[in-house]
């Protein structure tokens, strides 16, 4: 038994647009709900100038803005032949990237921000085609630079971990 489905030219694009808009609307409602839950949150203590509620509200605001764009976008987002295929190699890279991020989360406290960023950043750079020397140099400079930016300039403390003996 065979089924045939006749679509008018452009009907697939219209269906894709409707599906994408429904998806964006549902996620936008979730963002609004989460923002309403996060808005009244006040921590009993605050070790940062902005407090712990600023980051989730900022992320939800950015996500909401992107979802609003998807809702009012005049055309659907359609995969073209010029885009890279989602083949086995790409899926392996995505899986390794997720694994590296989970390892980073586990090493963040014990090793500290700088060491865990270096240990995860170098394999991440190599995973996406970086050469050894530039990867090592850029990851070390960025790890130390981001630590100084957050800890010293923005007064948002990050753990030093094993490097805490260098503090003072």
From TrEMBL:
The chain crosses the membrane at residues 22-42, 54-72, 93-120, 132-150. Keywords: Membrane, Transmembrane, Transmembrane helix. Residues 22-159 form the DUF1468 domain. InterPro entries: DUF1468. This is TctB. It comes from Pseudomonas avellanae.
